[in-house]
């Protein structure tokens, strides 16, 4: 049905449909209401991931693709509309509230071990969608308020190093062997994750050390950005300790783990098996729309502020989410990220679905898959 609407009408509808980002934190509140009404507390603790990775993939397929690419003549005006920026900035108090509420429930409700795991997964899922996804959008911007808001969001899930490594590491080395966030052809998610955790943490410090040295500043000076962002994370952990003891710290660290793991699972999906060609000069070709998997499913694109138009994002990293474009010639995922995350958890199924797509994309250049 949306395909029949005029383009400007769809753009206006999408403008307000981005408010769907409020659904994940609302699901935390709904979880509590459900177990108060019906019991089954340990079951309803899993409501958020059940909706995000169970119901949303079904609705995603029913709604289908996003039919709209913004006209380039509209891009300057759309890019400057403050409404879109404030939606992202609003995520800072929203996730701060979700973190406090999530911690309160974790510490006061009598969950079983399974129920505690469910609640941590739920809060971590919200963190992956709100803190990390929106933090990712903000750290790419030149505006200092947006950059700091992005860093603060990442600090709430103890992943401040992503602010450095993603922009100065991943975007430089994407789809090359030098990038730990670009998964290789035939590499399972479970082989990918440990390397991604370690390399991306260490590389953030190396990149910041290099920046400081280039400016003649000491690594241990206040100019070291990582000290500030990890300092914020430690401060949050201390607050949880003051008000809730070690169980509060456990909650903060565990929800952070689930949140940044969701990020790395999505990294695995976004670049699986894709490679930038090495030129005669020994350098790699510039990142372009062929080096990231694209997904144009409407619901999950709205849900994730168009993160799934990832091909355009890597070709034009400063382009704001509301003006990212779908490129039909980019490699295309068969579904939205919510579906693909579930698929990636089962490597044989993932390989069965994705390996033929990678092989078809590199038909005639199979040496890129070695």
Short structural summary:
The chain has 370 residues and is an all-alpha fold. It has helices at 7-17, 23-38, 41-44, 47-63, 75-80, 82-108, 113-139, 144-155, 161-173, 189-214, 225-271, 298-303, 310-315, 337-344, 347-361.
Break the fold down into its secondary structure elements and pairings:
Blueprint: H1 7-17, H2 23-38, H3 41-44, H4 47-63, H5 75-80, H6 82-108, H7 113-139, H8 144-155, H9 161-173, H10 189-214, H11 225-271, H12 298-303, H13 310-315, H14 337-344, H15 347-361
Helix pairs in contact: 2-4, 4-7, 4-14, 6-7, 6-8, 6-11, 7-8, 7-11, 8-11, 9-10, 10-11, 11-14
Tell me what the structure shows.
This protein has helices at 7-17, 23-38, 41-44, 47-63, 75-80, 82-108, 113-139, 144-155, 161-173, 189-214, 225-271, 298-303, 310-315, 337-344, 347-361. The radius of gyration is 21 Å and the shape is globular. The chain is an all-alpha fold and 370 residues long. The longest helix has 47 residues, at 225-271. The chain is 65% helix and 0% strand. It has one domain (2-274, 283-359). The termini are far apart. Helix 4 (47-63) crosses helix 14 (337-344) and helix 8 packs across helix 11. The mean pLDDT is 94. It has 15 helices and no strands.
């Amino acid at each position: 049905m949306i395909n029949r609407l005029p383009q400007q009408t769809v753009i206006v509808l999408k403008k307000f449909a981005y408010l769907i980002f409020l659904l994940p934190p609302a699901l935390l509140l709904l979880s509590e209401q459900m177990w108060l009404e019906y019991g089954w507390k340990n079951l309803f603790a899993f409501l958020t991931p059940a909706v995000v990775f169970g119901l949303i993939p079904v609705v995603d397929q029913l709604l289908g693709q996003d039919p709209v690419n913004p006209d380039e003549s509209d891009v300057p005006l759309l890019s400057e509309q403050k409404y879109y920026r404030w939606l992202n900035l609003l995520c800072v108090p929203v996730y701060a509230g979700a973190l406090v509420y999530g911690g309160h429930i974790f510490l006061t409700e009598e969950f079983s071990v399974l129920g505690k795991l469910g609640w941590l997964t739920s809060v971590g899922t919200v963190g992956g969608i709100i803190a990390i996804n929106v933090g990712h959008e903000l750290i790419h911007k030149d505006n200092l308020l947006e950059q700091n808001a992005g860093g603060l969001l990442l600090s709430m899930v103890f992943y401040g190093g992503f602010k450095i490594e993603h922009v100065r590491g991943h975007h430089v080395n994407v789809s090359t062997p030098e990038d730990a966030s670009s998964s290789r052809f035939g590499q399972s998610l479970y082989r990918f994750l440990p390397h991604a955790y370690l390399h991306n943490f260490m590389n953030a410090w190396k990149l910041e050390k290099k920046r400081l040295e280039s400016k003649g500043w000491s690594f241990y000076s206040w100019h070291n950005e990582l000290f500030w962002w990890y300092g914020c994370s430690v401060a949050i952990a201390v607050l949880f300790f003051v008000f809730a003891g070690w169980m509060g710290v456990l909650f903060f660290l565990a929800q952070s783990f689930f949140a940044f793991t969701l990020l790395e699972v999505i990294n695995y999906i976004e670049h699986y098996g894709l490679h930038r060609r090495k030129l005669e000069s020994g350098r790699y070709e510039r990142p372009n729309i062929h080096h990231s998997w694209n997904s144009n499913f409407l619901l999950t694109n709205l849900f994730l502020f168009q993160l799934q138009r990832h091909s355009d994002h890597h070709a034009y990293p400063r382009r704001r989410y509301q003006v990212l474009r779908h490129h039909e010639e980019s490699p295309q995922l068969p579904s939205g990220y919510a579906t693909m995350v579930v698929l990636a958890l089962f490597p044989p199924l993932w390989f069965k679905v994705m390996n033929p797509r990678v092989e078809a994309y590199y038909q005639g250049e199979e040496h890129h898959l070695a």
